[in-house]
Amino acid sequence: MDFFERSSSWNYGAMKNFHRISEPVKRHVRQVYWTVAMALIVSAVGVYAHMLLNIGGLLTTFGFLGCSFALMNTSSSYAAQGKRWTWLMAAAFCEGASLGNFVGAVIEFDPSILVTAFVATVAVFASFSGAALLAKRREFMFLGGILASAASSMLTLHFLSSFFGGAALMFEVELYGGLLLVVGYVIFDTQLIIERAERGDMDHIKHALDLFVDFVGIFVRVLYILVSVHTRFHWT
């Protein structure tokens, strides 16, 4: 079987896997993505609010954590959906405000980097989340343990670097390794959302929070990388 035959076979098989997802779960996934898109818009408003009012900082960081905690501990009943939606949007706003300083500095440095980073993040997120949708059910669920172990290892290395040096090297490891880690979580979280939905967990607000955190994690790291690359070329 040549390359084109293998490619056609994979595409056909992948589409069959997608069609195996039940119609209610498909509607749920679409609702999750729509909710993520709304959260990203509100987050952009948070960035803009910081640039106007200088509200971002430690307070908004804790605000994001507090709103996320409140969302996850509020009943997922239909009657509480409005409150949970408010918590999600408040968390997204706080996250945007917390990123306001960094985003503002990038805009002053070169606004085109911000656009490139966002487009690249959308492409990466869509590609890997789409791959998880088209993959066989539970095919990537094994990633959960691997990703948790990798995150724990990076945290341990970060802690050790503060005592034994190598902070610059550790920053590079956290930047590029962290990007791979978050991309892995996009795949894992997407399949986990499908699996939970198939079992009756249609909590699109909580699922949207998971993917929103993944998206922001990719965006921040891609933005750092692009600024770093641009700076290196600027000074050479």
From TrEMBL:
CDD domains: BI-1 (cd10430). GO terms for cellular component: membrane. It is a multi-pass membrane protein. Keywords: Membrane, Transmembrane, Transmembrane helix. GO terms for molecular function: calcium channel activity. The keyword Ubl conjugation does not apply. Its main location: membrane. The lineage of its organism: Eukaryota, Viridiplantae, Streptophyta, Embryophyta, Tracheophyta. The chain crosses the membrane at residues 32-49, 55-73, 85-107, 113-135, 142-161, 167-188, 208-227. The keyword Hydrolase does not apply. Pfam families: Bax1-I (PF01027). It is found in: Membrane. This is Bax inhibitor 1. Belongs to the BI1 family.
